[in-house]
Design goal:
One of its GO terms (biological process) is phosphorelay signal transduction system. Helix content is about 50%, strand content about 10%. It has 7 helices and 5 strands.
């Protein structure tokens, strides 16, 4: 499932994931109904514009792993919030052309075939460039969880 209020992002994701069966929603209400009605291998949720954190809570309640995808909410605080609230990944939209890799990591981790936060090791240098070296030190609980699961 993909939830994003930007039509161009939605189309790009559908093209990149053409090998997958995808339900999509451009607003909170539609996404909420789909998440409560259907079972998904993963939900790709935009943070801004569609109440992504509320959708994350619904997905988590329904046992659906969620990958948070963001451009406008790309910040250390939102990273920490997403992971603390149960997101399985936090991916910047500028890296969405690699979404298949991150989703494969997430799905393999769900089966126990991969470390849960492999996506983070792939994006660690990107986050350090965006947020500054040592940025994760301010978020000890999140850092400890990431290091325990991927390190």
């Amino acid at each position: 499932m993909i939830v994003d209020d930007e039509p161009d992002v939605m189309e790009t994701l559908k093209d990149l994931l053409g090998m997958c069966a995808i339900d999509d929603a451009a607003d909170f209400e539609t996404a909420e109904k789909l998440l409560n009605r259907n079972k998904y291998d993963v939900a790709v949720l935009d943070i801004m514009g569609v109440k992504g954190y509320d959708l994350l809570e619904i997905a988590k309640k329904n046992g659906i792993p969620a990958l948070m995808l963001t451009a406008h909410a790309l910040s250390p605080d939102n990273f920490a919030k997403a992971i603390s609230e149960g997101a399985k990944a936090y991916i910047p939209k500028e890296k969405m052309t690699e979404i298949d890799v991150y989703l494969a990591d997430l799905l393999k981790a769900q089966k126990g075939d991969e470390k849960p936060y492999r996506w983070f090791s792939r994006l660690k240098s990107f986050f350090e460039t965006q947020f500054g070296k040592g940025w994760l030190e301010s978020y000890r609980e999140v850092r400890d969880e990431l290091e325990k699961k991927y390190g």
